[in-house]
């Protein structure tokens, strides 16, 4: 029996890959630039151990050049280059990654900034190009090589001339078709925006010759076209900078640049975690509720970067729904990516990061509540409802995180108070946390049901959001004090008049029976109550569901 090896049909494989791995053609530029960045990283690592090599940051860069006449786009770098063998292995074999090998070999030297790993990114250039030409001169060699391919039919390699060490990749951009506009990959402006979108934080400068029209000197109203070499990328991401180097304005400007909202951020969090999980994040709590926040269109999520390269625009898994208003981004070097460089759906690392982020937001909000009450109330005005939904959802699983962040209007203080504030000033004989539901604070204040509780000098929380009572039902109690609606049948208040009331009810049994008959189907019982002081009559609830809740439940679609 002989064992045969599978041979990949590279022509078909290439086709398949080009058309199925990547959902957007523009990412070819991200892939080529990432490769260039890796190549510069490699020469940098080499310089760490090779005394003959100086790594002078100024001399290392990536350049993107366009030639509309020849329809070519060139990405060149001053990186480590490729030997003939490397050209064959790394560009000639699909799914072979020289960068992965480099990382594995250099593990001890901390090569985790290197981006490449799958050995397919390079081929994405065939999504937009008919011919790809690679001219490269490897470090330590006098000869340069030219690799050329039209994609499916294989490639050629020959020696050639190149002065400096590094690689130059030229794409012959495809002609436009009816479905696809390829011209945009020859357009300065488009290219700049693609670079900014995906590669803004590549650590080496990405240069381009950009034509700009400027007012002509010494003449009025006249403009001249000036071509200038510009660095397109920001390089050092703000989240990798030290907090102490950054001002509030820096964060605000970033918020605006990223178009996280039209408002100002109310608070920012700059997180750098370096332990079992490693990530950097910048998060913002907006000042105002986004206009579409309570609609289906609103999509929660944070931007997700892997090593400074954008992977996902809105990663919803990073935020629980109740913190869905948080904006910002996360950058981690530990994510497991799939072959098209998307995050794996059930990445363990991502889950850990999400949990960590959730805790950071919770403690940030607690700090704000403690130290900047006014600001917190502004926040609560915008997003408090979301926190209450958070308490209610998932069967109360998040209540420990959220209960101390809740605010309710207090009859006593005439302002918003926390549950802790309420409980800490409860008189000793008070057993429950009392609340009253209604349409507005004014209306609740006039409710007859509140009279006895008020009279006892107990504080009442006013619930005017529909969600309030549902959330509180999910909490059940706070610091071992149960919640009780002022409209519930038994208020749990010791009252010497209680007995008298029972006697009166018994005495006038017939009268009450008659009232019950008249109101039959509308009320369950009619009796004398001690809770009223100035009002003659009121409604109260019997079970757990109060009248307000019943109204809401009735209004819900079945
Ligand atoms: P990956 O980057 O995931 O390894 P690619 O298909 O993007 O896969 O690239 C394959 C390999 O080709 C890289 O690992 C690297 O060894 C080599 N390579 C690609 N571009 C360059 C470049 N500009 N300079 C040096 N080597 C490169
Ligand atoms: Mg790559």
UniProtKB/TrEMBL annotation:
Record bears the keyword Mitochondrion: no
Keyword Chaperone: yes
Keyword annotations of the record: ATP-binding, Chaperone, Cytoplasm, Nucleotide-binding, Stress response
Subcellular location: Cytoplasm
Pfam families per UniProt: HATPase_c_3, HSP90
Assembly and interaction partners: Homodimer.
Family statement: Belongs to the heat shock protein 90 family.
NCBIfam families membership: PRK05218.1
Stated role: Molecular chaperone. Has ATPase activity.
PANTHER family in UniProt: HEAT SHOCK PROTEIN 90 FAMILY MEMBER
Protein name stated in the entry: Chaperone protein HtpG
Organism: Priestia koreensis
Designated gene of the protein: htpG
